[in-house]
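pipeline: protein-struct stage 2 | run 1193 | Putative Phosphoribosyltransferase
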Amino acid sequence: MVLFDDRRHAGILLAKELEAFRGNPAAVILALPRGGVVVGHELSLALHLPLDVFITRKIGLPECPEYAIGAVSETGSVYLNPDAAGTVPREDIAGLVEAQRHEIARRQTLYRQGKPLPSLHNKTVIVVDDGIATGSTFFATIEALRTLAPDRIIAAIPVSPPSTAAKVRALVDHSVILATPEFFGAVGEFYVNFQQVEDEDVVRCLEQAEQVYRTRPCDVR
C-alpha cells in the first residue's frame, strides 16, 4: 500500500488536517531530523509557523543498529523500550547512549549554528516525523518535551502501526496520524520516493522555512 509520493506530499496532507493552527503566534513546529524536517518544512510553509528541529537519536543494538532498544534526546533524557532494553547489559547501554550524545552535539551545531532550542514554555508544539514504527524516538521526544512546559503537544505523523499510534495518542494532547495500516514492515514502504535525507537537506529546509516565515505575511483564513 503506497500512501505518499514523497515526504513533501505527506507534509502537504498533514497541513490540511492542521489548518486550525495556521498563523497561531503561540505555535511552533519541531521536526525530527532528518526525514521529519522535509515534512515539517511543508507544514511550516502551509501554516506559516516557525520551524525548528528537536534532535533525538535512536539507541540501536550494536549487532543490529536498526533495532531500537530506546532513544536519547538533546535535553539528555533517555527512553528505554521495556521489551528490548532488558536484554542488554546496563554498561553497554551507557556506551551506546554516550555515542549518540556525541552525534546529537554535532547536529545541534550544524542545524542550529550555535542557536539554542527556542523556549517552549506555554507554546503549542507540533512534533512531526516522516513516520514511526516502534516509536522509541518519538516517545523519547515527547517525554523530553514535557519537561519544557509547553501548553500543548500535537503529534503530526503520516503513517504508523496501529499499536504505536495508540501509544502516541495516549501521550499527547492532540494527534494527526494520517494512516495506521495493519500490515507494517517499515516506514519507507508507504512512500514512492523515500530517498535518504542528508545534513545539507536539513539545513536548506530550515533556512528556507525561516526566510519565508520572516518575510511573507501570514494569510490567516
